Amino acid sequence: MKSLLFVLCFLLTLPLPAQAADKLELGRISVSELEEIYDFYGYHGEKDYLMIPSYHYPPIFLKYFPTDFNKISEEKKRNAMFIKILAPLTMKLNNEILAERKEILEISNYFQKHQELTKEQEKFIEDKATKYDIFTRFKGYRRYAYFLDELQAKVHVIPPSILITAAALETNWGTSRITKEGNSLYKALNWHSNEGLKPIGEKEDDSYRIKTYPDIYSSMQEFALKLNSSISFKELRGFRNKILERRTPLLGTMLAPHMVWNSPLKNYAGLFDYTLAYYELNIIDKSVLDSKMIENTLPKELKNLAL
Question: Structure pTM?
Answer without folding.
Answer: 0.89
